[in-house]
């Protein structure tokens, strides 16, 4: 199997070495995997200029040519799935099988937007006066930039880059400092399949502030996309305001997972396990607050505890592992703080509640807390770890009120069977995405994004392309 480990910045189709380097480590073992080029603001500006030079020719190509190149990129990701998955497991920690599923997921955005490139239409507007013809056209907005997170090192890049390229835009990406190797590997594949120089540029950096400033304030950039925390997102949004860039932000979540008393409890447990333990809980749409109706609480918790006991935690390279290490010490400290605070304030820990030191410093036990209340920090912050924090509620009205009692609104989930309740609760929950008797809701065909402080804009789906387009109205006069 070939190695796809690249360690330099990728600008204008070239691998650019930089004297300054930062280390990328394996969270399962602490081993240093690579020393990666540490781009500064000047190099980021070079990447923006390269993207700007590449723009006219890329934008001018017929849609089917851009689509064909994207499909070749998709094929290359599929052909190299195992190598990409092993690289991702090494730098991010998720099990190899889950990493391979992420390659499928990430590549699916490339395939989907290759198709959308060929289905982007404008409008012919009805006649307003006999002397004019009006049409509305769509075109790629121009040079785009993105800052992406470490929890999905492949898919969070393709979900932004694929629609941008499909729309005829060029792109500069700053991948996360913790997981740049997956990004650099797919840039290599993009180059091999013939995506022209300068169309995709990758600037790894440990200096998020100054590179981020270039990617949000550079006047040549017309659109910025970010996935990460709400706190950082707010700062970046302000920076983008300096020259009124188009933006999309996929920010923090605090997803409720509500189990009503008419739910199929076995199915609810199964769906919660899928939702919660994906990527060890380090997912922005992970269920964060588990709200269970009082009269089914004991039964649900017993079933959940039995399912959680079967979880296998180990390095992502082990066989049949459910989840691996958390990403770094800060992640472990946060989980320990939240669990500690909950316990001090009266939560009961039925399972776990500790670091699995036999495995290593970053492995956290599957943890089940009950008697959780809304005043505990664990219900206010994203846990981003393998901790299930269960609260109870009395009736539908209280369940909905508790679920909506947050400034966030990314994903939400509920389990119920009564179709009238399903209709009522679906309408009442404040979130951009809702899983109803379903814990897995992500797909390239779906519109991903949040409401309230969880963000702006949508990724994936037919709406994802529009984020990288501008709309122009043409009024043609002079008809008799
Ligand atoms: O964590 C953010 C993205 C997760 C997903 O696309 O399902």
Automatic annotation (TrEMBL):
Active site: 250
Gene3D superfamilies with a match to the protein in the record: Aldehyde Dehydrogenase, Chain A, domain 1, Aldehyde Dehydrogenase, Chain A, domain 2
Molecular function per GO: succinate-semialdehyde dehydrogenase (NAD+) activity
Domain Aldehyde dehydrogenase intervals: 15-473
Database matches in Pfam families: Aldedh (PF00171)
GO biological process annotation, one example: gamma-aminobutyric acid catabolic process
Superkingdom: Bacteria
Keyword annotations from UniProtKB, A to Z: Oxidoreductase
Enzyme Commission identifier(s): 1.2.1.16
Keyword set includes Oxidoreductase: yes
Family, similarity comment: Belongs to the aldehyde dehydrogenase family.
Name of the protein described by the UniProt record: Succinate-semialdehyde dehydrogenase (NADP(+))
Recorded name of the encoding gene: gabD
């Amino acid at each position: 199997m070939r190695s796809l480990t690249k360690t330099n910045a990728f600008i204008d189709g070239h691998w650019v070495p930089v004297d300054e380097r930062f280390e990328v480590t394996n969270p399962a073992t602490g081993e240093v995997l690579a020393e990666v080029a540490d781009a500064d603001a000047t190099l980021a500006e070079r990447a923006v200029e390269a993207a700007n030079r590449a723009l006219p020719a890329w934008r001018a190509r017929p849609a089917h040519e851009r689509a064909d190149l994207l499909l070749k990129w998709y094929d290359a990701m599929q052909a190299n799935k195992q190598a990409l998955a092993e690289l991702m497991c090494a730098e991010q920690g998720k099990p190899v099988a889950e990493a391979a599923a992420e390659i499928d997921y990430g590549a699916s955005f490339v395939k989907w937007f290759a198709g959308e490139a060929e289905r982007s239409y404008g409008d012919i507007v009805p006649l307003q006066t006999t002397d004019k013809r009006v049409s509305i056209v769509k075109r790629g907005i121009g040079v785009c930039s993105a800052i992406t997170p470490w929890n999905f090192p492949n898919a969070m890049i393709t979900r932004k880059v694929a629609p941008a390229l499909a729309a005829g835009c060029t792109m500069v990406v700053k991948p996360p400092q913790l997981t740049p190797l997956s990004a650099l590997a797919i840039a290599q594949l993009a180059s091999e399949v013939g995506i022209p120089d300068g169309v995709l540029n990758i600037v790894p950096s440990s200096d998020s502030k100054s590179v981020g400033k270039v990617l949000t304030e550079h006047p040549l950039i017309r659109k910025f996309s970010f996935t990460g925390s709400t706190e950082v997102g707010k700062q970046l949004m302000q920076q983008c305001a300096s020259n009124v860039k188009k933006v999309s932000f996929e920010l923090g979540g605090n997803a409720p997972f509500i189990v009503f008393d008419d739910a199929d409890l076995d199915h609810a447990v199964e769906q919660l396990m899928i939702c919660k333990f994906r990527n060890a809980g380090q997912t922005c749409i992970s269920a964060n607050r588990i709200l269970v109706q009082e009269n089914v609480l004991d039964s649900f918790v017993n079933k959940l505890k039995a399912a959680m006991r079967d979880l296998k935690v180990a390095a992502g390279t082990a066989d049949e592992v459910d989840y691996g290490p958390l990403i770094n010490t800060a992640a472990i400290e946060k989980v320990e703080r939240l669990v500690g605070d909950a316990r001090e304030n009266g939560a009961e820990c039925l399972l776990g509640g500790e670091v699995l030191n036999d495995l290593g410093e970053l492995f956290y036990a599957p943890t089940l807390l009950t008697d959780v209340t809304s005043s505990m920090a664990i219900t206010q912050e994203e846990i981003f770890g393998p901790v299930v924090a269960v609260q109870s509620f009395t009736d539908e009205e209280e369940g909905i009120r508790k679920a909506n009692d947050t400034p966030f609104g990314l994903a939400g989930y509920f389990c119920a069977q009564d179709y009238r309740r399903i209709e009522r609760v679906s309408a009442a929950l404040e979130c951009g995405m809702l899983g109803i008797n379903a814990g897995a809701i992500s797909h390239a065909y779906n519109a991903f994004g949040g409401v309230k402080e969880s963000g702006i804009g949508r990724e994936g789906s037919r709406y994802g392309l529009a984020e990288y387009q501008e709309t122009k109205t043409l009024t043609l006069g002079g008809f008799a």
